[in-house]
Amino acid sequence: MLRLGRGYLIRWLVTVLCIAGIGWIALEYFVPSPPSKVTIATALKGTTYDYFGQRYKERFAPAGVNLELRETAGAVQNLRLLQDPNSGVDIAFVTGGISDADHAPSLLSMGLIFNDPIWIFYSSTESLDGLPQLRGKRIAVGPEESGARYVAERLLGKANVNSKTATLLPFGGDAAVDALDDGKVDVILIVGGSDSPAVRALLANPRVRLMNFSIAEAYTHIFPDLVRLVLPKGVIDIDPPNPPNDVTLLGTTSKVLIRRGLHPAIVQLLARTMKEEHDGPGLFQRAGEFPTNVDPEFPVSQVAINYYENGPSLLPKYLPFWMTIYTQRTIAFLIASIAIVLPVFGFAPRLYAWFVQQRLRGLYRRLRVVENALQEELTIPQVEALKNELADLDRASNVVPMLNSDLYFMFRYHLDRTRSRLAEAQSV
Questions:
Q1: Which domains does the chain have, with CATH numbers?
Q2: Looking at 77-142, which runs of residues are DSSP E strands?
Q3: For the chain, what is the largest distance between any 2 Cα atoms, rounded to a whole number of angstroms?
Q4: Residue 308 has what DSSP assignment?
Q5: What is the pTM of this model?
Q6: Which residues have C-beta within 8 Å of that of residue 250, sequence separation ≥ 6?
Q7: What angle do CA 233, 202, 124 make, to 5 degrees?
Q8: What pLDDT does residue 310 have?
Q9: Which residues pair with 237 in a beta bridge?
């Protein structure tokens, strides 16, 4: 084998380290590691978004991802935080009708997750069936930047119920329930599912009544993003039936929005979580109806669409989340390594031959120095020095590999001729 000098070894080592470094950088770029922590904007305590935020957090935990809950005023603030690159919010619950892709092009939807009933609870003994009857009352509509307040102002405004004709108070979630119990408000308008603690508490309270939207169909024509819902008689309790009659409600839709660029592994984990949480039947939905792979306001993430239509891909189906990521990175690294190594193997023989030729060129340069010295009159010490140089060249030529025997014998031929000339010069 060819013994390479220290300089060659250093250059080879530097080359290998550079290739490894470039490969690592490329791997981080094409298959980056998912973050270990992401933040979701929810809403006030006791609301539907807070409830599902807790549920999502529990499902993220086994995957080794910490889902941090950001308590907010509600959907409007959630949307603003998601659009703010410095907020740290990656995911958010949002109510339909607030914005769309034209106004928020940096966001993607994960699909609609449920119909959000608009509940109007009141403690009066009188029966209410229309929004105009709320004039003059103290109404809890949620804090500023909440989805409930946004919806309330749209609906109440059509019935001429506003800050001039009624008292709109910023209570929401559990705080609104406490305010109604304490007599601080007459009416609560809540937007959220029947699973939220606040709604459950109000539905189970015999002193609280639920308003029937007698002209709900008309509102769906005025606001196309709203839907008409019916809470069946006795669906909360059979005996005595609660509610005592079918109650017509209005509802909006809820969705999950994400930033563009959120790691695909996190998006798939989120899609799996949403499928597990929202796929079943409910008071206002059929099994399999949610989450949807369409959103009338935002483009839906292709990762989410693929998951909803085809289920998990091969690796996530059989491996834990963290192992899936490492397996994907390993596969990517092997593919990249093969793509690099195969051309290197094809080029290696030519590179090795070049090193051999370079080494022989060095030997020939030394041999030429001896040839040039033979053109002059030599002293005995000079002749002995040239003999030693030729002996050293002889030893150095022995490292030429068998594969390059033609180069080896050519060099030996020229070496023997120079040795003969030196012998002739010595005998003169």
A1: 6-14+329-427 (no CATH), 37-312 (3.40.190.10)
A2: 91-95, 107-122, 138-140
A3: 138
A4: H
A5: 0.68
A6: 117, 118, 155, 213, 216, 219, 220, 226, 227, 228, 229
A7: 85
A8: 87
A9: 242
